[in-house]
Amino acid sequence: MLSALLHGIILAFGLILPLGAQNIFIFNQGASQPRLRGAIPVIITASLCDTFLILLAVLGVSIIVLTVPALQIGIFSIGIVFLLYMGWSIWNSDTANVSQKETAIHLPPKILLNF
After folding, report:
1. Residue 10: enclosing H or E segment and its boundaries?
2. How many other CB atoms sit within 10 Å of the CB of residue 56?
3. Looking at the whole model, is its pTM more than 0.85?
4. Is 29 exposed, middle or buried (0-12, 13-18, 19+ CB in 10 A)?
5. Whole-number Å distance between alpha carbons of 18 and 80
6. Over the stretch 12-22, which tens digit does the pLDDT of each residue have?
7. What is the C-alpha to C-alpha distance for residues 46 and 44, in angstroms, rounded to an integer?
8. Residue 82 to residue 72: CA distance in whole angstroms
9. Is the pLDDT of residue 35 over 60?
């Protein structure tokens, strides 16, 4: 019973943490853009990436990941580094002295940050 509860808690954190980072990024981009038109590329890119990942999960790519331990470790490592970087950059950002023009990211970096 305790093992199932522990596995459930770990799974919940594993599912919610990446979504939190993505939601913070999309929210910050939407809040920093003067018009909706500036936030649309980020929203579309995030939607397409999420749809692609859901499609891969439904098609059974997880079986390949689970059978190749090196691939699993590589994906976990990339995810951990990404989340640590996002957390570090948000923690160290100075939001009090940043103007709206300084926070707006140009289109190509916005799209690349969603990958």
Report:
1. helix 2-32
2. 13
3. no
4. buried
5. 10
6. 787 777 677 77
7. 6
8. 15
9. yes
Q: Mean of the pLDDT values across residues 73-90?
A: 89
Q: How far is CA 47 from CA 69, 83, 86, in A?
A: 29, 19, 19
Q: Give the whole-angstrom CA distance, residue 54 versus residue 83.
A: 20
Q: pLDDT: is 99 or 2 the higher one?
A: 2
Each residue's pLDDT tens digit, 49-58: 888 988 888 8
Q: Report the largest interatomic distance among the alpha carbons of the chain, rounded to a whole angstrom.
A: 53
What are the angstrom distances between the C-alpha of 90 and each of 24, 37, 49, 84? 9, 24, 22, 10
**Please, what sign has the CA dihedral across residues 16, 19, 23, 25?**
positive
What six digits make up the tokens of 115? 């990958």
Paired tokens of 63 = 């079986």
